[in-house]
Design goal:
Blueprint lengths: L2 H21 L3 H12 L2 E2 H8 L3 H13 L3 E6 L2 E6 L2 H17 L1 H11 L10 H9 L3 E5 L3 H6 L6 E2 L17 E5 L7 H11 L4 E3 L15
Keywords: DNA-binding, Transcription, Transcription regulation
Organism: Lujinxingia vulgaris
Protein name: Metalloregulator ArsR/SmtB family transcription factor
Length: about 220
């Protein structure tokens, strides 16, 4: 095989890889992927979540679709988008982890924003499961209920942040409450833990997600 064929193959292969990289080069598109990793959404719903116009959001979604990271399906008058596969969610988790490890500015930003070292519970899947089985920890999922129904960590209670105070009677005061949401940059869990501590609970947030632990949750 001629060397020119090898060169053409490599150039073409890396061009396809660069298409994925280009699609990931927008902060808005990364946030969109995190949202779609929780549950499928219409363009209009995504636009509201990321505080952008429907036109801009549609443009971002089309860029992700061209890179084959998302797929779309007509839903009546709307178009519903979802991730192209679980491997896309895994890619996002790894990208977040690499950025947190190597980019000092990101580590500093998250540390200063959350600002309470005692608020963070560092857990891997095995430790979390062992502590839950031992009755030491109650795990709460504070994402919107539609996201919980799409998939959640096994054993978690669905208590959306917007409904927290209405479900206090479900939470024991003699055990640690660990709240999780969409991942390391999701603020729902930090807010839930803060509110619960103010009410006298032993509460922490965990910067984990359904995808980061690699643990299969119940599927609706």
């Amino acid at each position: 095989m001629a060397s020119s064929s090898f060169r053409h193959f490599k150039d073409t292969a890396y061009a396809h890889l660069a298409q994925v990289g280009k699609a990931l080069s927008s902060p808005a598109r990364l946030e969109i992927l995190e949202l779609l990793a929780q549950a499928p959404r219409t363009v209009e719903v995504v636009a509201g979540e990321i505080h952008q116009s429907v036109a801009n959001t549609s443009h971002h979604l089309q860029s992700l679709k061209r890179a084959e990271l998302v797929r779309s399906q007509r839903d009546g008058l709307h178009v519903r988008y979802s991730l192209a596969g679980d491997d896309v969610a895994a890619l996002l988790v790894r990208l977040q982890a690499v950025a947190q490890h190597h980019i000092a500015g990101l580590e500093k930003l998250t540390r200063e924003f959350f600002d309470e070292p005692q608020d963070l519970e560092s857990l891997d899947a095995a430790t979390l499961r062992a502590r839950m089985d031992a009755g030491e920890v109650v795990l709460i999922d504070v994402r919107p209920r539609v996201e919980f129904e799409e998939g959640h960590l096994a054993g978690a209670l669905s208590i959306p942040l917007s409904e927290l105070e209405a479900h206090l009677d479900e939470l024991p005061r003699d055990r640690e409450i660990v709240a999780y949401c969409r991942g390391p940059f999701c603020t729902f869990s930090a807010e839930a833990a803060r509110r619960l501590r103010e009410l006298g609970y032993d509460a922490r947030r965990a910067d984990i997600s359904v995808h980061s632990l690699g643990e299969s949750g119940a599927r609706a």
